[in-house]
Design a protein that fits this description.
By secondary structure, the protein is of the alpha+beta class. It contains ten helices and nine strands. The protein folds into two domains: 80 residues, Arc Repressor Mutant, subunit A (Orthogonal Bundle); 171 residues, GAF domain (Beta-Lactamase). It comes from Pseudarthrobacter enclensis.
Length: 275
Amino acid sequence: MKYPYCGRRGAEVSNSPIQGAQVVSRIAGLLRLVGRSPEGMPLAGIVRESGLTRPTVHRLLSSMASEGLLDHDPATGNWVLGPEILLMGSVASARFPLEDIARPSLRRLAEATGESAFFSIRRGNETVCLLREEGSFPVRSFVLHEGVRFPLGVASAGTAIMAFLPEGEQEEMLSHWSAHAGTFADGHTEETVRNNLERTRLTGYSVNPGLILEGSWGMGAAVFDRSGRPAWALSLTGIEPRFKPERQEELGGLLMAEAHRITQQLSGGDAGPQR
């Protein structure tokens, strides 16, 4: 499945001379594109998704490769994340101990439900999947994996987070919903999203009824930071028959219990900025 959303695409379209902060923004955008999956992305895809010219993209990619931030895979022709990213991530993980806190909850959810469990973080107006724990049920949904980004309000994690943001922030996104949702807008109309947000506020957990990929369902619950803002989310994904209405309440209760557990743990320490 293709995940065309990159978040700051509008800021990357201009091809004027790049200086200072602009080059940093473009490099960050290209790293996000390449980091969508372990397989990376071909040059043509990066050019298309970034909106930059081919010479500009190639020059930036080559410069990052010389610094070890990216590699060019000769077998596939794709650009992939390089060893320096791994080293920097290892160092950063000591400051943001999210895996140590969230992993036990993911394992409990996967063991109790048989479904795949995920932990996502809010980054601006997106969610990014950070962690995954596979369940025992042999048939799985492969919509979500580490590194995947969705606009807030799309997918179960993004719906769970957006539902508990202040009304003004929700309306800001909804006021230009098509631009915000990008290629997901057709399956996530403004009316559908508003209904999902209202249902999530009432029940405490979100339900994504196959809106991203037919037959692939998900449920999510928000995790809150020390100020009471939704900053992360737990979610479960699987095939439609595993998410019948009579089971949703059970799954929702498990998600909310683990989300509350993580919220309580995070309230005692800083797990990192959300923006």
